[in-house]
Structures are given as structure tokens and as C-alpha cells.
Design brief:
single chain; Immunoglobulin-like; Jelly Rolls; 2 domains; 3 helices; 42% strand; PCMD domain-containing protein; PCMD; Put_CMD_sf
Length: 361
């Protein structure tokens, strides 16, 4: 066991020293990719194609596209861009952004903006689109949700589990249709050394952020995507089979506890580092559901009433918002095979299958 722990710590050290600048070599770098592009009034993530040098963005239906500015433009290391973030542009026609690499080479991107239609849905809410990723740690491949690696509409914790060669979230074909299968997984004793042996299969709007100095070891979900409208609730099909024995992050049995799944939607107003919760819809259940069941949940706008379970209430750093004053900016949708998965608690083998998520207006 001591040898295994030594190997694990060594692997962690390698990750810590290789997870920063990946485009480094002797001399100036030629990297000139746009990694993230965010506009005022943006609805959903930008569709960035670094090969075709195109970016397409949808904004709210009432946005003034003659006067919009980029609030964030993330680039390759040491690259610069013109126009810069914060400079208003007229997007009634495509706007060009020129990225200059450290070596002086340039790439010209065409940014196209369109207004959002009525009753918008989150892209890929039928969970039919998946792409293949090469696992650099294990030498194998796995499936991740989305059209490609630039698609950050939906995320999973797979990138964190891939170091161990395990993939808690996968596509599953049922009666010819692709759904998302989420399974709470035993990550092994080495993960238990860090208190992360129990990994809940999950799926959420956003992405798994492993960009910090610790890489995947200290990575965590970045929840939510830009969103501008006010749905009344959501609908989704699901199946659920809870595991038998609930365990913690060390792999120890948690007595007198049964596992349950979480399915919830939060509508938010985000400004700088502040988040106001505008609406909540939350389902937590532990009953076995062997065939498809359609779950319909209303969104409750404003502060939740007295007697609401604690897990549905505000998280640290949140406040309640008022939909009459605060416009929605983001939506967070979360599916988890174990409701205590964020604390690395759950029953190994708990399986939640979801399909055809829909916002109801």
C-alpha cells in the first residue's frame, strides 16, 4: 500500500507541474486560438471553430446588436486580440477579431451574432451528441457529451475520473435512442487517499474546470451557462436504480443512509462575483424506477417558503433575486446519480439514466 501511495503522489506531482502552460517551447509561441468568447446579453455558449476561424453566438431577443461588447475573450497563452474585450461593436454584420500570437503571426476570426427565438431550449438536451476523447493517462478513449471539445454546454466529471481509467457518465442506447447514463463509481483506494473514492455519475450545464495549478486533482465543475429567458419549469425522462451500500470518500460505509438521485434547475442572475437565485426546481428521490418516467417540475420564483429542505436553499455566496428587477443571465441544470455526490458520498453502482430534457414555458 505504501508503494501505491508513493506512485499516486508522484503522479499528482507530475500533474501539478504540467497543467499550466501547455503551448510552451523555446522561443516565442505561435498559439492564437480563441478559447472562450462571451458577449453581453449572450444566451448559451459561443460556438467556436478554431479551424474555420468562426464564432457564432446567440443573444437575447431584445438585445441591441448594434452596440454589444465582449465581456471576456480567453486566448492562447501570450496571445493578444483586437478589438479587445470591452470595446463595443455593431454585430448587425459579422465582426472580425484578429488574434496575434507571441511570435507575431495572426489569425482572423469572424464573429456572427443572431437573436434568440421564442421559448429557447438548451442545445443537445436530447443528449444525442457525444464525441471521443483520448485519455492521456490510460492510453484508451472514452465518450464525452457534446459536439466537440469546444462545446461546453453540458459537462461531466469524466475528465477527473479519467486518471483512473473510469468514466461514470456514458451514452447508453435504449430502444434505438441515445440517453445519458450516470453511475456512482468506486474510484479505488488511491483516490480514497485523497478522500475522493466515491464519484457520483453526473451531468450538468457548464464544464469540468481543470485549468488550475492542480489540474484534474483539484478540478471541479463550473456550473451554469448563459441564459436569458424565464421558463415555467422543466420536463425530463428518467430511470433510477440506487445502490445498496452508501460509502464516503474514504470508501467507508455510511450507516443508516439510503442513496437518492438529484435532478434540479436553478435560474440565476450573475454579476461580477455575485449570484442571485431567481428560481428553483428540485427533485430528489431514492425510489427504484425501472422504466421511463416523465418528471415535470415547476420553477418556483423568488425565495423558497418556510419548511423547504435545506439542500434546496441558497449556497454560500448566493442571495435571493427578484425577477421583476433582475434579468436572468445563467441557468444551472444538474443530474446526479447520488444526491450527496458533491461530498463524495453515495452508493457504488447507483445508476441514473436521463433523456429528453425540456424547458417548459
Amino acid at each position: 500500500m505504501k508503494k501505491n501511495i508513493t506512485l499516486f503522489v508522484s503522479a499528482a506531482c507530475i500533474l501539478l507541474t504540467t497543467s499550466c502552460v501547455k503551448e510552451d517551447h523555446f522561443g516565442p509561441t505561435d498559439g492564437k486560438k480563441i478559447k472562450e468568447f462571451v458577449l453581453e446579453e449572450q444566451a448559451g455558449n459561443a460556438n467556436i471553430d478554431n479551424d474555420a476561424k468562426t464564432i457564432s453566438i446567440t443573444v437575447s431577443a431584445d438585445a441591441n446588436i448594434k452596440f454589444l461588447k465582449a465581456t471576456k475573450i480567453a486566448l492562447s497563452s501570450f496571445a493578444t486580440v483586437k478589438p479587445a474585450a470591452g470595446e463595443p461593436q455593431d454585430f448587425t454584420q459579422p465582426v472580425t477579431y484578429t488574434v496575434t500570437g507571441e511570435d507575431g503571426s495572426t489569425a482572423v476570426f469572424k464573429v456572427t451574432v443572431s437573436r434568440q427565438g421564442g421559448n429557447p431550449q438548451i442545445p443537445n438536451s436530447d443528449f444525442n451528441k457525444w464525441y471521443t476523447i483520448a485519455n492521456e493517462y490510460q492510453g484508451d478513449e472514452y465518450q464525452e457529451i457534446g459536439e466537440n471539445a469546444n462545446d461546453k454546454t453540458w459537462g461531466t466529471g469524466n475528465v477527473g475520473a479519467a486518471m483512473m481509467g473510469l468514466y461514470p457518465t456514458k451514452p447508453q442506447t435504449i430502444s434505438g435512442n441515445i440517453a445519458a447514463s450516470l453511475t456512482t463509481t468506486d474510484m479505488g483506494a488511491l483516490a480514497g487517499f485523497l478522500g475522493k473514492q466515491t464519484a457520483a455519475g453526473n451531468l450538468f450545464t457548464g464544464f469540468f474546470d481543470a485549468s488550475g495549478p492542480g489540474g484534474v486533482i483539484t478540478g471541479k465543475p463550473a456550473f451554469g451557462i448563459p441564459f436569458r429567458t424565464t421558463p415555467n419549469g422543466f420536463r425530463v425522462k428518467y430511470q433510477y436504480a440506487p445502490g445498496d451500500i452508501v460509502r464516503d470518500g474514504k470508501g467507508q460505509v455510511v450507516p443508516n443512509m439510503k442513496d437518492s438521485c438529484d435532478i434540479y434547475v436553478l435560474l440565476e442572475h450573475r454579476e461580477e462575483n455575485k449570484t442571485k437565485r431567481l428560481a428553483t426546481a428540485w427533485f430528489r428521490g431514492g425510489d427504484v424506477q425501472t422504466g421511463w418516467k416523465t418528471l415535470d417540475m415547476p420553477l418556483v420564483y423568488g425565495e423558497l417558503p418556510a419548511g423547504t429542505p435545506a439542500y434546496m436553499l441558497l449556497k454560500t455566496g448566493e442571495t435571493w433575486g427578484d425577477i421583476t428587477k433582475d434579468k436572468p443571465t445563467h441557468i444551472t441544470v444538474v443530474f446526479s446519480a447520488s444526491s450527496r455526490g458533491d461530498d463524495f458520498i453515495g452508493a457504488w453502482g447507483s445508476n441514473l439514466i436521463v433523456d429528453d430534457f425540456e424547458l417548459v414555458y
